[in-house]
Amino acid sequence: MTDIQDRTYDAAIRDRVAATDWPAVAREVDAHGCGLTGPLLTGAECREIAGLYDDVARFRSTIDMARYRFGSGQYRYFREPFPEVVAALRETLYPRLLPIAREWAARLGWASRWPDEFGEWLERCHAAGQVKSTPILLKYGEGDWNALHRDLYGDLVFPLQVVVGLDVPGADYTGGEFLLVEQRPRAQSRGTVTMLPQGHGLVFTTRDRPVRSARGWSAAPVRHGVSTVRSGLRHTLGLVFHDAT
Fold first, then answer.
1. pTM above 0.90, yes or no
2. DSSP letter at 127?
3. Is it true that the peptide bond before 81 is cis, omega within 30 degrees of 0?
4. Strand ranges (DSSP E) for 11-159?
5. How many CA atoms lie within 13 A of 26 on its CB side?
6. Burial of residue 16 (number of CB atoms within 10 Å: 0-12, 13-18, 19+)
7. pLDDT tens for residues 63-116?
């Protein structure tokens, strides 16, 4: 298999990210807490990234979800240097998500502390002691699932993240839908279910999202997870835009 690290993906990734209807994604994220992008990776690229899972040297740690009562299944954090396609996706998606993040901060009256440049944001994370890499490769087999959670990792948090589907739902696996649950002010929680098309990204809320209330805007806590995989094997690439302590 050709080494992803040795390829140059920047131009292709920029073109695919630019082809996404970002105003539509922003509307979906505003309305539901998540929104699908267009295709970011080809099927061949998805299979290559999924195939990296067994190359343990590429990862800084492996998490067995059952051991920590996070669900069932396994995921691995990439170590630096990342595969070029992973680095290109993070760097190219960040400026597309930044306007949504800043708009949400303005609605909630929060300070917008995210700079224009992704590299500068990571430097701020590192200065605050958040120095561990956070891109994740997840692997679920039959019967595996992921409990509802939030990927915070430290005091500095980027309010949006992206997960990319690497397998074909309905062909490579069944079940395994992406789950998003929003705790609404003075009301029952609301759930949203999304099936991830291969190669597409899902932009979703990291921690809270602004919702209208009688007094203006309030922050609704949001958690995400994965429903039980009924059959097959499901891989996803998780892109978090802040590093960990």
1. yes
2. H
3. yes
4. 34-39, 59-64, 71-72, 74-78, 136-140, 145-149
5. 13
6. buried
7. 999 999 999 999 999 999 999 999 999 999 999 999 999 999 999 999 889 999
